[in-house]
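Contributing new records

If you add data, match the layout below exactly. Sequence lines come first and carry their own label; structure lines follow with theirs. Keep one chain per record. Anything else will be rejected by the validation script.
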Amino acid sequence: MPAVIRHDWTREEVLALFDLPFPELLHRAASVHRERFDPAEVQVSTLLSIKTGGCPEDCAYCPQSARYDTGLKAQKLMAVDEVVARAAAAKAAGATRFCMGAAWRSPKDRDVAEVAKMVGAVKAMGLETCATLGMLKPEQARALKEAGLDYYNHNLDTAPEFYGDIIKTREYQDRLDTLEAVRAAGLKTCCGGIVGMGESREQRAGLLQTLANLPEHPGSVPINRLVQVEGTPLHGTALLDPFEFVRTIAVARLLMPASMVRLSAGRNEMSEELQALCFLAGANSIFYGEKLLTTGNPDVEADQALFARLGLRPMPVVEESRTVHADIACAKPEAA
């Protein structure tokens, strides 16, 4: 019987999973993964920055913030036809989901109208669509849903108690409010965070606890490993132990059994062996392509070669019946 979807995890329960012996943790995570997914399939997504730089926020990790001198040149919103061409190239390379990201604190209605045109065109190509545009108002979320958007990404970034050390221009509740607007519009959520920002294990557990206790588990849970960019406040932060990163992936899989757990930012600095451990621990989604917004990503040929060596294959477009919306909640069995 598949692991029951829960929304009532305690911090102590999550920390107990982190504390398991490494082989036991990976065994549990791999077993839960197999209950709902083919372990040889990995969802392949491509992320395009459709509006780069110039963001007024002060996120300490972000090279797109206008507050930091990172050498990044701000760019205007891309034209619809250019986005469509990039989506076509991504599909030809094997991507099944196309994500569009814009460096806004919150988009204006005219911006949403333009992105809606992009969404409609990309959706017509047979790709799943995702967007990350900052904070959304309910009516903006509804407009994107009507245009054909499948997923909206809005990360929590870190645990509530560590958030103020990383971002001061937006409250944690602002993020939760946007997620609520997205769910209310009928959109699926893509929501995760960043590890390796100097947080403690308990704070990593707090991020995953918060994600797992949302009213609906995110359909996709991107786990980002901090990419240190010179000029940002977090440049020079002590690197996260690779095995701790794998533990984070495994615990995410256990807490959110039916979600896509995505290796996101930072994969360019991961060895192939580390990536393989993450797939074993329950990761089943990657970003594919040369860049992840503004930082490097393994190229398509390298990913294809790694898939071949590991016997992995791209996942077809996920059927609605396999998403977390079909799951039942809230029994409280033993952690498994």
